Amino acid sequence: MRYKQNFMVRTLFKILIISLLFINNSLAEKINDIIVSGNERISSETIQIFTTVKINDEVNEVKLNSILKELYDTGFFKDVNVQFNNGVLKISVIENPIIQNINFEGIKAEKIKNPIIKKLKLKSRSSFNDIFLKQDKKTITSSLREIGYYFSEVEIFIEELENNKINIDFKVNLGEKAKIKRIKFIGNKIFKDKKLLRSIISEEYRFWKFISGKKFLNENFIEFDTKLLRNLYLNKGYFDVQINSSFAKLINNDEFELIFNIDAGEKIFFGNLDIELPVDFNKENFTKLFNILEKLENETYSINAVEKILEKIEINSLNEQYESVNITVFEKREKNKLNLKFLIEEPDQKFYVERFNIFGNNVTRESVIRNQFELDEGDPYNEILRNKTVNNIQNLNFFKSVTSDVKPGSTPDQKIIDISVEEKPTGEISASAGVGTTGTTLGAGVRENNFLGRGIRLASNLTLSEESIKGLFSVSNPNFRNTDKSIYFSVEALETDKLKDYGYKNNKTGVGIGTNFEYYDDLFLGVGSTNFYERIETDSTASARLRKQEGDYWDSFLKLDFDYDKRNQKFQTSDGFRSYYSLDLPLVSDTNTLKNSYNFKYFTELYDNNITSASINFAAANSISGDDVKLSERLTIPSRRLRGFIRGRVGPKDGNDYIGGNYTSTLNISSTLPQILENNQTTDFLIFLDVANIWGVDYDSSIDDGSKIRSALGVGIDWFTPIGPMNFSLAAPISKASTDETETFRFNLGTTF
Predict the structure, then answer these.
(1) Which of 386-395, 676-685, 688-697 has the highest mean pLDDT?
(2) Contacts of 33 (CB under 8 A, 6+ apart)
(3) What's the pLDDT score for residue 692?
(4) pLDDT at 165 over 60
(5) From CA 688, how far away is CA 573, in angstroms rounded?
(6) Which of 497, 495, 748 is nearest to 643 (CA)?
(7) Residue 751: which H helix or E strand, with range?
(8) Residue 13 has what pLDDT?
(9) What is the Cα–Cα distance from 169 to 162, expressed in whole angstroms?
(10) d(CA 658, CA 650)
(11) Residues 6+ apart with CB under 8 A from 680
(12) Which stretches of 70-152 are assigned E, i.e. beta strand?
């Protein structure tokens, strides 16, 4: 009986469906003609394309509703009416007005207004849409809340113009910015509030913090603060940390309490750490990495340590000349120990670069950017080389920001890489001053780093002191005619006037020209020539040795440079080294002075976010024909290598005159302190130790050669201010010769144009 009932139900259902289809089809008619009315700007043909129907198509009630929806979805129409009678489809429309202008009143700061405008759906010269207008009002309000204007109000005024055009005016009352009265951390937070406050960007409001914008409630800052807190705990061993909530509570008219609810969980330590390599990998290339893993065992878990291991695996794999590898990390928890296994596999499918797209380079030529690519179109895709490409472009210092995005290509094994840049001013005006025990030194310079968008660098500077004036103009093209070879040309002039005190004066003018190129992997060779005309004048008060050097000189040198660069990146270097040797061989010279110098600099990270560097430098200047080295060719220690001392006022003296030496050596160690001002994104604090010596007087053995270890300990601040980069250094000499002159404070200031 149940079977018969089910059979009858199914039969009736089928009959119902067939009947409905029959009725629907019986109502369908063919379109014999389409008539469009009411349109002014949009052609009838375009409207027919929007409807996706044409003559001889069949139309019914369902299709008419679909046509209505399609036309409204275009956003071009305020009202649409569709009728179908006797084979004629009539479409009547009222077009939305065109927006002539969108104006803002109440927001003066371009840095606030411009990002909001970019988010709006309605644009000038586009069709008006009431739904979009309501959404844009919400966008303005939410955007203002994100930057602290929680009490802002937005009013909309529409001005009707002729020819179905309108102006839209957004009148904004920003109100007072929401202040952060208190920041609270609750829950199983482990650390003291003081430490947690130092790890986030947001700050509690204090009247003396009139410069900082972090004392105002900012939703973007709060979101970033949550990430910073999570990273803090992950780097201190709290693998299971949860930032359960972060919210702001209004406690006064314009003051909020910001609350973070934290559950740190149990502290975790590294357990067994191992790497499983493909059978064809050379294990010896990973020896250092295995040693690092061994040292980490039983240490507190740190997410930064894991990320560095992954980075080193990728670099080693690249050195193995495999295009790319897949790294899978297997985690196994055993009580408070976390065992990690890094499985390295060659990918089953290789991907290739189909093409690069470059966006945002309104000034810089595309060829300048492409010259920084570590990958070419058609190469196997490699994540490390993509990141290195981005870093190379950043190192040009032409752009405010550089980002990359990888998208699928036209085939499954291809990828498209989009590079987006934001141009910034590349001209610089700089000024410097030094304050020491005997007075001040002043300097100024103008530089253009991207002349005509070609990557050509122009520079000129002038340095003044009580006794000398020095000027320099140079031009360099880092990629001459796309040959991957750089060329440079420079003109310089120097006048040192010591007639009044020491009885001599010299003028030196010259030009230099040369080229640099990569000779072998990471080994760069430089070849150039420098040519100088020099005049030395003396009077009766000069020493006999100095009077012997009076006259005119013409010197020409062959310049050779050898640069072995193994830094992980030129921009914000944190690892690796650079070894540099320079040699000046005399070709035409009265004194035949041969100069050579060597510099080695090493970078490392001693702890999270720290960058420590150590460098040594040696230089020598001697005549290969046994003549005396001219005063202008004698060596001095650059102020950047011996802070705390006045340049040119250390070393051997002839009477009261500092004459420089035949030899110099320096040792420089510096280390950043990210714990100080750690939340300030525009300021770096560092400590440094400079040690140096300068000695040798070839023209008179009776003069003390000046050999003495000079050293200074100091602190420095690099601060990027609204008017440009500013550098301060404060140094205290530790050891010095009695004749040396010190300089405790120095600053440099620059701005862009």
Answers:
(1) 688-697
(2) 55, 87, 88, 89
(3) 96
(4) yes
(5) 17
(6) 748
(7) strand 745-752
(8) 52
(9) 17
(10) 7
(11) none
(12) 77-85, 88-95, 98-105
Average pLDDT over residues 378-405: 87
Contact 640, 601 (CB under 8 A): no
- How much is the average pLDDT of 150-165? 88
DSSP code per residue over 386-424: HHHHHHHHHHTT-EEEEEEEEEE-SSTTEEEEEEEEEE-
- Helical packing angle, 110-119 and 130-146, nearest 10°: 140
Is 70 exceeded by the pLDDT of residue 210? Answer: no
- Confidence (pTM): 0.60
Residue 527's DSSP bridge partners are 515, 560
Please tell me the distance from the alpha carbon of residue 560 to that of residue 230, in angstroms, as a whole number. Answer: 51
Continuous H helices in 147-275: 193-199, 219-234
Strand (E) or helix (H) holding 463: strand 456-464
43-to-77, 162, 453 alpha-carbon distances in Å: 13, 20, 43
* C-alpha distances out from residue 263 to 188, 222, 300, 474, Å: 5, 18, 18, 59
Tell me the pLDDT tens digit for each residue of 539-569.
888 777 778 888 899 999 999 999 999 887 7
CA 225 to mean position of chain CA atoms: 21
**SS3 category, 558:** strand
Which residue type sits at 512? G
Q: How many CB atoms lie within 10 A of CB 540?
A: 6
Cα 188 to chain centroid, rounded: 36
Question: How much is the pLDDT for 27?
Answer: 54
Work out whether strand 352-359 and strand 414-423 pair parallel, antiparallel, or are unpaired. Answer: parallel
Residue 433 confidence (pLDDT) above 80: no
Which of 339-343, 380-384, 434-438 shows the highest mean pLDDT?
Answer: 339-343
**Burial 358-395, CB ≥16 within 10 A → b, else e:** bebbebbeeebbbbbbebeeeeebbebbbebbbbbbbe
Residue 681 to residue 744: CA distance in whole angstroms: 27
pLDDT band, very low/low/confident/very high, at 211 (cuts 50, 70, 90): low
Instruction: For the chain, report the end-to-end CA distance as a whole number of angstroms.
Output: 93
CA distance 699 to 155: 84
What mean pLDDT do residues 635-661 have? 88
> What amino acid occupies position 639?
S
Token look-up 């913090």 returns: 209
The C-alpha atoms of residue 623 and residue 724 are separated, in whole angstroms, by: 44
Amino acid present at 398: F
DSSP, collapsed to helix, strand or coil, labels residue 550 as coil
Query: Identity (one letter) of the amino acid at 712?
Result: A
Instruction: Give the pair of three-digit tokens for residue 588.
Output: 């035409």
In this structure, what token pair is assigned to residue 65? 């509703």
Section 357-382 average pLDDT: 90
Measured between alpha carbons, how far is 417 from 415 in angstroms, rounded to an integer? Answer: 7
Closest CA to 603 of 594, 595, 612: 612
